[in-house]
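Hey,
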Amino acid sequence: MTKHNFLRKELLFFLSCLLSAFCFFPGCEKQPTLNFGPTYVDDNTGANIVLVDTATVNVSTVYTDSTATAATGYLMVGAYNDAYMGTITSRAFLQVIPPAGLPTLDPRIDTYDSMGMVLFFKPGNPYYGDTTQFQSYMVNQVDTLWQLGAFQHGWFSSYTLPLGPMLGESSVRIEPNRPVNFASNTSQGTGDTVRIRMDDNLGRTIYNMVYNKSDTVVKSDKWMRWFNGLCISPDTRNGAANIMTGFKDSCLMRIYYRENAEISSEKYLDFTLTNKGFQFNNIARITPASLPLSKLDSPTQKPQTPPATLSSRIGNAGYVSTINGLNVKLTFPNLSSIALRRDFIGLLRAQLIVRPVPGSFSQIWRLPPAVGIYYTDLNNLIGTPIPAVGLAGAQTGAPLIDYFNPLNSVYTYDVTTFVAAQLTNPSPAASQTGLMLSIPAPADNAAFQRLIVADQTYPKTEQIILNVYYISLYPHQ
């Protein structure tokens, strides 16, 4: 569709000065065939502003098979079934270390009680899914030396470590939106903490090491070789509980003992998380063949340019779930043709409107509160953020999210600088130069909300729309 807004001739000189900052384009004898809307009406009144909102938008999903999930500040643990993406699970790997000052235990009055894992969930922690459900959390000991591989430079979502037998589990419901003045946010009645009882045989062994001041608990290097680490994972033996929870990495393994003096009292030893750079979340996605996303192209070797799969192959949609390695690439193959129009004088403004697919989100399966927009090219990598004209900082889409009227939900971006560059881009790779939609840091590796967008086979009210405003001058020569 093409729309005009006519300007007075007195403004022509001012517009000419204003447009000196833009690139000018000569007319051409033959223009590409594009549907820009109804025919112009030449009434010789001067200049007008033309809106073009029918530019072709190609939608692709770029897949990176591993994302950096180390030292995010959160232990992401849970599992859920996504109607578009399949089953998503996340496990948290971590190391703990004995306290620096070990107490002197007296066997006449001090007795071992129990051992457990303590996890902290506070308001503001990331979560996703159905918070009315109970989730069972399991603790296993890592059954191998914790070290990077020969060509491994950090811990990523695809990495995992072998585990020993389960040490304990607990089923808990967490209410993340309960007001802070309530007594508890957990079904355990423990405020903002989740407690998992662990194996007493291991607990007594460590307690005795503390009593004997064994080198294993006194010297951290020996401890790390003996106690390789822990993994906290969701229990999916009876299916996913449809909840993903982010616990603070201030978690700890605690040994409880009693001091039976004149007044018996409970005491404990805290083994706290150490080496945060080695704490990572292992994330897996299993997409059944019945879902369109199962046809997504995957990297076949390393290193490799992340492959981009056209929307036509994966359900006529694009998928943004950065923590799962999914981002949306948008290209505009006919964009430069606007500058070849005989009436084109210069670009004024360009706006990108992104709408989530209706029915793909709800108050349980929430949309991302921010989606960034970045340059990308034929390498399908995330480049620098697209700046908004006259505004500082990266764009987040300024989302308007309406769960009751989904068609009103929208992310809006100023893409004037990108369009201006593309109108004059002579490179053969211009057709692969585009925009990338991605969850910005720090939520890119600590949040599971996702955005699904439609391609141009959907009704126009559900498509991604590029609005290009330019100056046109009559009469044609």
